[in-house]
Amino acid sequence: MIKLKKMVIMLAKVMIVYASMTGNTEEIADILGEELEKYDIEVEIEECISVTPEDLLEYDGALIGGYTYDDGQLPDEFVDFYEDMADVDFSGMVCASFGSGDTFYDEFCLTVDLVETRLKEQGATVPVAGFKVDLDPDEDDVAKAEEYAKTYANALLGNA
Questions:
Q1: Can you give the pTM of this predicted structure?
Q2: Which of 68, 32, 25, 70 is nearest to 47 (CA)?
Q3: Res. 55 pLDDT band, cuts 50 70 90
Q4: Which domains, from first to last, does the chain contain?
Q5: I want to staple 101 with a disulfide (CB 3.0 to 4.6 A). Which of 17, 61, 68, 86 is the partner?
Q6: Residues 91-110: pLDDT tens digits?
Q7: Cα 134 to Cα 141: distance, rounded to the nearest angstrom
């Protein structure tokens, strides 16, 4: 009997970077990472304080997430990463943003919008609008995250 080994060829590498105070944005990052792996995409997930925007250039794509603090403020631990993004040319990369916020505030998930705008300004291809979650992800949000990841994966892999 001949046994064949199953080889999995990763088609692309993606870095997911996030800032999370309560764990909500981290949970979204994990959900997105699990979904992308279903498309044979190699995923690395890191907190924003552990990497720099330049580190993202080693990947085919990036998902960048953060929560929106209070009434539209960037998280303190995310400010340096966000500002340093302005010095990086993301041309040729497929990127997107995600995050959590609270609809109680007027500026719901502003961090997601700011990151998306910065990515576009720095030349990234952004195939899907930022993914926003009110507080922690529920069942509906998980389903939306799966669709978001599918759209992103198809764009990254050239299937869009």
A1: 0.92
A2: 25
A3: very high
A4: 12-157 (3.40.50.360)
A5: 68
A6: 999 999 999 999 999 999 99
A7: 9
